[in-house]
Design brief:
single chain; globular; 2 helices
Length: about 230
């Protein structure tokens, strides 16, 4: 990929995946957005204080025999705490899932595929405890991963609906960071450790589909050294 220089400090910027449109400069913490061959400076990103998280940009892992690299992340705060979402570059992307996400909250790790776009819906149309069926095109979109995830997960129940604020950004991301953006999401679970998350945006609704695994199952490498971990 083309090399870029930070418009703030002149250091080299890393865009290792074609699906990343923004990055945080490793040297001056500037937020930079890529518009084709032009760069836009959005300002400074606050340094994320150590939260005893062993995952970091540069950590590698495996899901269903497919390797991935953490290239970016975002923290979202809500009234009961926060969760972290990591942007993953896949070693073997497919046409229907070019990248993926790893959601991390309260000791749970969810591998989530590139989201499906749904007809626009409102969070008010859903309530905790109600059931939601798997969309018919999920199996087609997941391709080689579908048999292990869809077979035993025909129906999901909504276990939580909450609104969170993006507060910190790390590395590369597939969209331009916006700290004024709030995200309302519904978390759905099945009896087969499969997970769905529905995100209600102002202009579209997206569905993330994936699976919960234990930390050890991802066979992480290049973890951040955390005292007592």
């Amino acid at each position: 990929m083309k090399d870029f220089l930070c418009p703030q400090c002149g250091a080299g910027l890393k865009f290792t995946t074609a699906y990343a449109v923004s990055t945080v400069c490793e040297f001056c913490n500037s937020l930079v957005v890529r518009h084709d061959l032009n760069l836009e400076l959005l300002g400074k990103e606050a340094i994320l204080q150590d939260d005893l998280n062993p995952l970091q940009v540069g950590t590698r892992g495996i899901f269903q025999k497919t390797g991935f690299l953490i290239v970016g992340g975002v923290r979202l705060n809500h009234h009961e705490g926060f969760w972290q979402e990591w942007f993953l570059q896949l070693d073997s992307p497919t046409r229907n899932s070019r990248y993926a996400w790893l959601a991390q909250a309260q000791g749970e790790y969810q591998f989530l595929f590139e989201p499906l776009e749904l007809p626009k819906q409102s969070a008010s149309e859903f309530k905790v405890g109600s059931g939601v069926s798997v969309p018919s095109d999920v199996e087609q979109r997941l391709g080689k991963w579908s048999s292990s995830l869809v077979k035993y997960a025909d129906a999901f129940n909504i276990i939580d609906i909450r609104t969170a604020q993006m507060t910190h950004f790390l590395g590369q991301l597939p969209w331009a960071p916006d700290k004024n953006r709030q995200r309302t999401v519904a978390e759905l679970s099945s009896t087969a450790d499969a997970k769905m998350t529905i995100e209600f945006g102002s202009d579209k609704t997206q569905l993330y589909y994936g699976q919960v695994l234990d930390f050890e199952d991802f066979k992480f490498q290049n973890l951040k050294e955390v005292k007592g971990w």
